[in-house]
Amino acid sequence: MASLPAEVVQKPVTLGERVRFARRELGMSQAQLAGEELTKGFISQVEAGLVRPSLRSLQVIALRLGRSLDYFIGDESLAGAKRRVFHRLAAQAAIERRDWGAVRHEATAALAQPSTLGPERATLLRYLATADTAEGKREQAFERLAEAMTLVDANSDPTELAHLLHARGVLYVEHGQLAAGVESLEGARDVMEQREITDPRLRARTLVHLGTVYRRLHRTAKALATYELALAVASRSSELRLAAQSYMGVAVALYDAGELDSAIANYQRALGLFERVSDIGVELSVMQSLATVQFENGDMTAARATVDRCSERAALAGDLRVGAIVDVLRARITLEEGDAESALRLAEAAEHRLADVGDERQRADALRVAAAADHARENYAASDRAYRAAIELLASIEDHPDLSTLAAEYAQKLRARGDLESAFAYLELARDPGASRRHPS
Asked: What CATH number matches the domain at 6-73, 1.10.260.40, 3.50.50.60, 3.20.20.70, 1.10.150.390?
Protein backbone atom coordinates (compact mmCIF):
# COMPACT_ATOMS: atom_id res chain seq x y z
CA MET A 1 0.00 0.00 0.00
CA ALA A 2 1.33 3.44 -0.87
CA SER A 3 2.48 5.51 2.08
CA LEU A 4 0.87 8.85 2.85
CA PRO A 5 2.85 12.01 2.05
CA ALA A 6 5.26 12.95 4.85
CA GLU A 7 3.56 16.32 5.26
CA VAL A 8 0.32 14.53 6.22
CA VAL A 9 1.69 12.08 8.77
CA GLN A 10 4.36 14.26 10.32
CA LYS A 11 3.40 16.83 12.91
CA PRO A 12 4.47 20.35 11.84
CA VAL A 13 7.37 21.50 14.01
CA THR A 14 8.72 24.81 12.78
CA LEU A 15 6.76 28.03 12.55
CA GLY A 16 6.82 27.86 8.73
CA GLU A 17 5.56 24.28 8.71
CA ARG A 18 2.69 25.22 11.00
CA VAL A 19 1.66 28.12 8.76
CA ARG A 20 1.70 25.85 5.68
CA PHE A 21 -0.19 23.05 7.47
CA ALA A 22 -2.93 25.38 8.76
CA ARG A 23 -3.26 27.11 5.37
CA ARG A 24 -3.61 23.86 3.44
CA GLU A 25 -6.03 22.50 5.99
CA LEU A 26 -8.33 25.41 5.12
CA GLY A 27 -7.70 25.02 1.37
CA MET A 28 -6.30 28.54 1.22
CA SER A 29 -3.71 29.77 -1.28
CA GLN A 30 -0.66 31.78 -0.24
CA ALA A 31 -2.13 34.84 -2.01
CA GLN A 32 -5.40 34.47 -0.09
CA LEU A 33 -3.53 34.20 3.18
CA ALA A 34 -1.42 37.25 2.35
CA GLY A 35 -4.45 39.45 1.64
CA GLU A 36 -3.82 43.17 1.35
CA GLU A 37 -1.49 43.55 4.37
CA LEU A 38 1.11 40.96 3.30
CA THR A 39 2.44 39.50 0.03
CA LYS A 40 2.37 36.03 -1.50
CA GLY A 41 6.17 36.07 -1.68
CA PHE A 42 6.41 36.90 2.03
CA ILE A 43 4.10 33.97 2.94
CA SER A 44 6.22 31.68 0.75
CA GLN A 45 9.41 32.78 2.53
CA VAL A 46 7.79 32.30 5.97
CA GLU A 47 6.68 28.76 5.10
CA ALA A 48 10.14 27.93 3.76
CA GLY A 49 11.76 29.22 6.94
CA LEU A 50 13.69 31.91 5.10
CA VAL A 51 12.26 34.81 7.13
CA ARG A 52 10.81 35.12 10.61
CA PRO A 53 7.66 37.29 10.74
CA SER A 54 7.24 40.03 13.31
CA LEU A 55 4.60 39.40 15.95
CA ARG A 56 2.35 41.91 14.21
CA SER A 57 2.56 40.03 10.88
CA LEU A 58 2.09 36.73 12.67
CA GLN A 59 -1.03 38.07 14.35
CA VAL A 60 -2.49 38.80 10.88
CA ILE A 61 -1.63 35.27 9.73
CA ALA A 62 -3.03 33.66 12.88
CA LEU A 63 -6.30 35.60 12.60
CA ARG A 64 -6.82 34.55 8.96
CA LEU A 65 -6.06 30.92 9.77
CA GLY A 66 -8.30 30.88 12.84
CA ARG A 67 -5.47 29.82 15.12
CA SER A 68 -4.11 31.25 18.35
CA LEU A 69 -0.72 32.93 18.37
CA ASP A 70 0.53 30.25 20.74
CA TYR A 71 -0.10 27.59 18.08
CA PHE A 72 2.67 29.12 16.02
CA ILE A 73 5.14 30.23 18.71
CA GLY A 74 4.09 28.33 21.82
CA ASP A 75 7.30 26.29 21.92
CA GLU A 76 9.55 28.88 20.33
CA SER A 77 12.20 29.79 22.92
CA LEU A 78 12.99 33.13 21.27
CA ALA A 79 9.41 34.36 21.52
CA GLY A 80 9.24 33.21 25.12
CA ALA A 81 12.47 35.01 25.93
CA LYS A 82 11.16 38.21 24.34
CA ARG A 83 7.97 38.03 26.34
CA ARG A 84 9.95 37.48 29.51
CA VAL A 85 12.27 40.40 28.82
CA PHE A 86 9.35 42.67 27.99
CA HIS A 87 7.47 41.86 31.20
CA ARG A 88 10.63 42.24 33.30
CA LEU A 89 11.39 45.66 31.82
CA ALA A 90 7.74 46.67 32.24
CA ALA A 91 7.88 45.65 35.91
CA GLN A 92 11.07 47.64 36.39
CA ALA A 93 9.52 50.72 34.78
CA ALA A 94 6.42 50.33 36.96
CA ILE A 95 8.67 50.43 40.04
CA GLU A 96 10.13 53.74 38.85
CA ARG A 97 6.67 55.30 38.64
CA ARG A 98 5.49 53.52 41.84
CA ASP A 99 2.62 51.69 40.13
CA TRP A 100 2.59 48.66 42.43
CA GLY A 101 -0.36 46.97 40.73
CA ALA A 102 1.50 47.05 37.40
CA VAL A 103 4.66 45.75 39.11
CA ARG A 104 2.74 42.71 40.35
CA HIS A 105 1.05 42.12 36.99
CA GLU A 106 4.23 42.35 34.91
CA ALA A 107 6.53 40.47 37.31
CA THR A 108 3.97 37.66 37.71
CA ALA A 109 3.60 37.43 33.92
CA ALA A 110 7.39 37.11 33.55
CA LEU A 111 7.60 34.50 36.32
CA ALA A 112 4.90 32.47 34.54
CA GLN A 113 7.25 31.90 31.59
CA PRO A 114 8.65 28.36 31.97
CA SER A 115 12.24 29.40 31.26
CA THR A 116 12.39 32.08 33.99
CA LEU A 117 15.02 30.61 36.29
CA GLY A 118 17.99 31.51 38.49
CA PRO A 119 19.10 35.15 38.70
CA GLU A 120 16.26 36.39 36.48
CA ARG A 121 13.70 34.80 38.80
CA ALA A 122 15.53 36.37 41.75
CA THR A 123 15.25 39.81 40.11
CA LEU A 124 11.52 39.41 39.58
CA LEU A 125 11.03 38.25 43.17
CA ARG A 126 12.92 41.37 44.27
CA TYR A 127 10.54 43.53 42.23
CA LEU A 128 7.56 41.85 43.92
CA ALA A 129 9.22 42.35 47.32
CA THR A 130 9.59 46.06 46.51
CA ALA A 131 5.84 46.26 45.85
CA ASP A 132 5.16 44.31 49.06
CA THR A 133 7.33 46.72 51.06
CA ALA A 134 5.61 49.77 49.59
CA GLU A 135 2.22 48.31 50.53
CA GLY A 136 3.27 47.40 54.07
CA LYS A 137 3.43 43.62 53.46
CA ARG A 138 6.76 43.18 55.20
CA GLU A 139 6.59 39.47 56.02
CA GLN A 140 5.74 38.61 52.43
CA ALA A 141 8.59 40.83 51.24
CA PHE A 142 11.05 39.05 53.56
CA GLU A 143 9.88 35.67 52.24
CA ARG A 144 10.36 36.71 48.61
CA LEU A 145 13.85 38.10 49.30
CA ALA A 146 14.82 34.95 51.21
CA GLU A 147 13.81 32.80 48.23
CA ALA A 148 15.62 35.13 45.83
CA MET A 149 18.83 34.90 47.88
CA THR A 150 18.89 31.13 47.35
CA LEU A 151 18.84 31.61 43.56
CA VAL A 152 21.95 33.78 43.17
CA ASP A 153 25.62 32.97 43.34
CA ALA A 154 28.13 35.49 44.67
CA ASN A 155 30.65 34.61 41.95
CA SER A 156 28.38 34.60 38.89
CA ASP A 157 25.64 37.01 39.98
CA PRO A 158 27.30 39.66 42.20
CA THR A 159 25.18 42.57 40.93
CA GLU A 160 21.88 40.87 41.72
CA LEU A 161 23.28 39.78 45.09
CA ALA A 162 24.13 43.42 45.88
CA HIS A 163 20.60 44.46 44.88
CA LEU A 164 19.09 41.81 47.15
CA LEU A 165 21.29 42.73 50.11
CA HIS A 166 20.35 46.39 49.64
CA ALA A 167 16.63 45.55 49.44
CA ARG A 168 16.83 43.35 52.54
CA GLY A 169 18.75 46.01 54.45
CA VAL A 170 16.15 48.68 53.62
CA LEU A 171 13.39 46.31 54.73
CA TYR A 172 15.15 45.61 58.03
CA VAL A 173 15.47 49.35 58.66
CA GLU A 174 11.80 49.90 57.82
CA HIS A 175 11.04 47.18 60.38
CA GLY A 176 13.12 48.98 63.03
CA GLN A 177 15.88 46.32 63.03
CA LEU A 178 18.78 48.72 62.62
CA ALA A 179 21.63 46.32 63.48
CA ALA A 180 20.43 43.77 60.91
CA GLY A 181 19.90 46.61 58.44
CA VAL A 182 23.48 47.83 58.83
CA GLU A 183 24.84 44.31 58.34
CA SER A 184 22.88 43.79 55.12
CA LEU A 185 23.63 47.25 53.70
CA GLU A 186 27.33 46.93 54.52
CA GLY A 187 27.21 43.55 52.79
CA ALA A 188 25.79 45.18 49.65
CA ARG A 189 28.47 47.88 49.77
CA ASP A 190 31.24 45.29 50.24
CA VAL A 191 30.01 43.13 47.34
CA MET A 192 30.08 46.17 45.05
CA GLU A 193 33.58 47.08 46.15
CA GLN A 194 35.02 43.56 46.01
CA ARG A 195 33.43 42.72 42.65
CA GLU A 196 34.08 46.22 41.25
CA ILE A 197 30.41 46.70 40.33
CA THR A 198 30.10 50.00 38.49
CA ASP A 199 26.45 50.83 39.18
CA PRO A 200 26.47 54.42 40.53
CA ARG A 201 22.76 54.36 41.18
CA LEU A 202 22.79 51.24 43.36
CA ARG A 203 25.98 52.39 45.08
CA ALA A 204 24.51 55.83 45.87
CA ARG A 205 21.25 54.38 47.17
CA THR A 206 23.09 51.89 49.36
CA LEU A 207 25.32 54.61 50.80
CA VAL A 208 22.34 56.90 51.48
CA HIS A 209 20.49 54.20 53.41
CA LEU A 210 23.67 53.18 55.21
CA GLY A 211 24.41 56.77 56.23
CA THR A 212 20.85 57.15 57.51
CA VAL A 213 21.16 54.05 59.70
CA TYR A 214 24.54 55.23 61.02
CA ARG A 215 22.90 58.51 61.95
CA ARG A 216 20.01 56.79 63.71
CA LEU A 217 22.56 54.73 65.63
CA HIS A 218 24.33 57.98 66.59
CA ARG A 219 27.48 57.08 64.66
CA THR A 220 27.76 60.65 63.41
CA ALA A 221 31.29 60.63 61.99
CA LYS A 222 30.56 57.51 59.94
CA ALA A 223 27.26 58.95 58.78
CA LEU A 224 28.93 62.16 57.55
CA ALA A 225 31.64 60.28 55.66
CA THR A 226 29.07 57.95 54.09
CA TYR A 227 26.76 60.78 53.01
CA GLU A 228 29.63 62.72 51.47
CA LEU A 229 30.67 59.64 49.51
CA ALA A 230 27.07 59.10 48.35
CA LEU A 231 26.82 62.72 47.22
CA ALA A 232 29.99 62.29 45.17
CA VAL A 233 28.57 59.15 43.53
CA ALA A 234 25.08 60.49 42.77
CA SER A 235 24.83 62.01 39.31
CA ARG A 236 23.01 65.21 38.40
CA SER A 237 20.43 65.46 35.65
CA SER A 238 17.46 67.48 34.45
CA GLU A 239 13.84 66.52 34.99
CA LEU A 240 13.22 63.79 32.41
CA ARG A 241 10.15 62.00 33.79
CA LEU A 242 7.81 63.31 31.07
CA ALA A 243 10.08 62.04 28.30
CA ALA A 244 10.41 58.67 30.06
CA GLN A 245 6.64 58.33 30.35
CA SER A 246 6.31 59.15 26.65
CA TYR A 247 8.68 56.32 25.76
CA MET A 248 6.63 54.02 27.97
CA GLY A 249 3.45 54.97 26.11
CA VAL A 250 5.15 54.16 22.80
CA ALA A 251 6.36 50.83 24.23
CA VAL A 252 2.88 49.77 25.28
CA ALA A 253 1.42 50.75 21.90
CA LEU A 254 4.10 48.76 20.08
CA TYR A 255 3.50 45.75 22.31
CA ASP A 256 -0.22 45.89 21.57
CA ALA A 257 0.63 46.01 17.87
CA GLY A 258 2.82 42.93 18.21
CA GLU A 259 6.15 44.70 17.68
CA LEU A 260 7.86 43.16 20.69
CA ASP A 261 11.44 44.06 19.76
CA SER A 262 10.57 47.74 19.33
CA ALA A 263 8.50 47.70 22.52
CA ILE A 264 11.47 46.36 24.47
CA ALA A 265 13.77 48.99 22.98
CA ASN A 266 11.41 51.80 23.98
CA TYR A 267 11.04 50.43 27.49
CA GLN A 268 14.83 50.37 27.79
CA ARG A 269 14.97 54.03 26.69
CA ALA A 270 12.30 54.91 29.25
CA LEU A 271 14.19 53.10 31.99
CA GLY A 272 17.39 54.92 31.14
CA LEU A 273 15.60 58.23 31.60
CA PHE A 274 13.82 57.07 34.77
CA GLU A 275 17.19 56.14 36.24
CA ARG A 276 18.50 59.65 35.61
CA VAL A 277 15.37 61.13 37.18
CA SER A 278 15.75 58.85 40.18
CA ASP A 279 19.33 59.96 40.60
CA ILE A 280 17.95 63.44 41.40
CA GLY A 281 16.03 61.73 44.19
CA VAL A 282 19.24 60.16 45.45
CA GLU A 283 20.99 63.52 45.38
CA LEU A 284 18.13 65.15 47.31
CA SER A 285 18.10 62.36 49.86
CA VAL A 286 21.83 62.71 50.40
CA MET A 287 21.67 66.49 50.84
CA GLN A 288 18.71 66.24 53.21
CA SER A 289 20.49 63.65 55.36
CA LEU A 290 23.79 65.52 55.23
CA ALA A 291 22.09 68.68 56.47
CA THR A 292 20.59 66.70 59.35
CA VAL A 293 23.99 65.42 60.41
CA GLN A 294 25.52 68.89 60.09
CA PHE A 295 22.77 70.22 62.35
CA GLU A 296 23.28 67.47 64.91
CA ASN A 297 27.01 68.18 64.76
CA GLY A 298 26.31 71.83 65.69
CA ASP A 299 27.42 73.33 62.37
CA MET A 300 24.40 75.59 61.77
CA THR A 301 26.01 77.56 58.95
CA ALA A 302 26.78 74.45 56.92
CA ALA A 303 23.38 72.93 57.73
CA ARG A 304 21.47 76.01 56.55
CA ALA A 305 23.55 76.21 53.35
CA THR A 306 22.82 72.55 52.59
CA VAL A 307 19.13 73.04 53.38
CA ASP A 308 18.92 76.00 50.98
CA ARG A 309 20.64 74.03 48.23
CA CYS A 310 18.41 70.99 48.79
CA SER A 311 15.26 73.12 48.86
CA GLU A 312 16.17 74.71 45.53
CA ARG A 313 16.85 71.30 43.93
CA ALA A 314 13.62 69.84 45.34
CA ALA A 315 11.62 72.74 43.87
CA LEU A 316 13.23 72.28 40.45
CA ALA A 317 12.54 68.52 40.55
CA GLY A 318 8.98 69.04 41.77
CA ASP A 319 9.60 66.78 44.79
CA LEU A 320 7.01 67.93 47.33
CA ARG A 321 7.94 65.31 49.91
CA VAL A 322 11.61 66.23 50.07
CA GLY A 323 10.68 69.92 50.06
CA ALA A 324 8.53 69.36 53.15
CA ILE A 325 11.23 67.33 54.90
CA VAL A 326 13.76 70.09 54.23
CA ASP A 327 11.35 72.63 55.73
CA VAL A 328 11.17 70.54 58.90
CA LEU A 329 14.94 70.73 59.15
CA ARG A 330 14.82 74.45 58.40
CA ALA A 331 12.33 74.78 61.28
CA ARG A 332 14.70 72.88 63.55
CA ILE A 333 17.57 75.23 62.68
CA THR A 334 15.32 78.27 63.13
CA LEU A 335 14.25 77.02 66.57
CA GLU A 336 17.87 76.44 67.56
CA GLU A 337 18.58 80.05 66.58
CA GLY A 338 15.84 81.22 68.96
CA ASP A 339 12.92 82.04 66.63
CA ALA A 340 10.20 79.73 67.96
CA GLU A 341 7.35 81.50 66.15
CA SER A 342 8.89 81.07 62.68
CA ALA A 343 9.94 77.50 63.52
CA LEU A 344 6.37 76.63 64.49
CA ARG A 345 4.94 78.02 61.24
CA LEU A 346 7.46 76.08 59.14
CA ALA A 347 6.93 72.82 61.04
CA GLU A 348 3.12 72.98 60.95
CA ALA A 349 3.03 73.74 57.21
CA ALA A 350 5.46 70.88 56.52
CA GLU A 351 3.41 68.50 58.69
CA HIS A 352 0.30 69.15 56.59
CA ARG A 353 2.19 68.48 53.34
CA LEU A 354 3.71 65.27 54.71
CA ALA A 355 0.26 64.11 55.78
CA ASP A 356 -0.92 64.67 52.19
CA VAL A 357 1.87 62.46 50.78
CA GLY A 358 1.40 59.81 53.49
CA ASP A 359 4.90 59.88 55.01
CA GLU A 360 4.08 59.08 58.64
CA ARG A 361 7.65 58.89 59.91
CA GLN A 362 8.61 62.32 58.59
CA ARG A 363 5.25 63.71 59.66
CA ALA A 364 6.04 62.59 63.22
CA ASP A 365 9.34 64.46 62.97
CA ALA A 366 7.47 67.63 61.91
CA LEU A 367 5.13 67.26 64.90
CA ARG A 368 8.17 66.80 67.13
CA VAL A 369 9.66 70.13 65.99
CA ALA A 370 6.27 71.85 66.35
CA ALA A 371 6.00 70.44 69.88
CA ALA A 372 9.44 71.73 70.80
CA ALA A 373 8.59 75.15 69.35
CA ASP A 374 5.34 75.32 71.36
CA HIS A 375 7.26 74.31 74.47
CA ALA A 376 9.72 77.16 73.86
CA ARG A 377 6.72 79.50 73.54
CA GLU A 378 5.40 78.08 76.87
CA ASN A 379 2.23 76.86 75.15
CA TYR A 380 2.43 73.56 76.99
CA ALA A 381 -1.04 72.28 76.07
CA ALA A 382 -0.24 72.56 72.34
CA SER A 383 3.20 71.07 72.95
CA ASP A 384 1.67 68.06 74.72
CA ARG A 385 -0.78 67.48 71.87
CA ALA A 386 1.95 67.57 69.24
CA TYR A 387 4.33 65.31 71.18
CA ARG A 388 1.60 62.75 71.84
CA ALA A 389 0.41 62.82 68.22
CA ALA A 390 3.98 62.17 67.07
CA ILE A 391 4.31 59.29 69.52
CA GLU A 392 1.03 57.80 68.27
CA LEU A 393 2.27 57.97 64.66
CA LEU A 394 5.59 56.27 65.43
CA ALA A 395 3.84 53.61 67.47
CA SER A 396 1.40 52.95 64.61
CA ILE A 397 4.26 52.22 62.18
CA GLU A 398 6.29 50.38 64.86
CA ASP A 399 9.32 52.65 64.51
CA HIS A 400 10.71 51.74 67.91
CA PRO A 401 14.16 53.43 67.65
CA ASP A 402 12.67 56.85 66.79
CA LEU A 403 9.85 56.30 69.27
CA SER A 404 12.37 55.70 72.04
CA THR A 405 14.27 58.90 71.19
CA LEU A 406 11.09 60.97 71.04
CA ALA A 407 9.70 59.59 74.31
CA ALA A 408 12.98 60.40 76.08
CA GLU A 409 12.90 63.96 74.72
CA TYR A 410 9.30 64.45 75.85
CA ALA A 411 10.10 63.04 79.28
CA GLN A 412 12.87 65.61 79.63
CA LYS A 413 10.44 68.44 78.76
CA LEU A 414 7.88 67.12 81.29
CA ARG A 415 10.53 66.88 83.98
CA ALA A 416 11.60 70.47 83.34
CA ARG A 417 7.99 71.52 83.90
CA GLY A 418 7.81 69.55 87.18
CA ASP A 419 5.44 66.81 85.92
CA LEU A 420 7.58 64.00 87.34
CA GLU A 421 4.90 61.30 87.19
CA SER A 422 4.30 61.72 83.45
CA ALA A 423 8.03 62.14 82.87
CA PHE A 424 8.69 58.79 84.53
CA ALA A 425 5.99 57.10 82.40
CA TYR A 426 7.55 58.38 79.18
CA LEU A 427 11.02 57.37 80.34
CA GLU A 428 9.61 53.86 80.76
CA LEU A 429 8.28 54.09 77.20
CA ALA A 430 11.72 55.19 75.98
CA ARG A 431 13.23 52.18 77.71
CA ASP A 432 10.62 49.77 76.28
CA PRO A 433 9.11 51.28 73.09
CA GLY A 434 7.41 47.97 72.37
CA ALA A 435 5.00 48.90 75.18
CA SER A 436 3.79 51.92 73.19
CA ARG A 437 0.19 50.74 73.28
CA ARG A 438 0.24 51.17 77.01
CA HIS A 439 1.78 54.68 77.08
CA PRO A 440 -0.01 57.32 79.16
CA SER A 441 -2.66 59.43 77.45
From this structure: 1.10.260.40
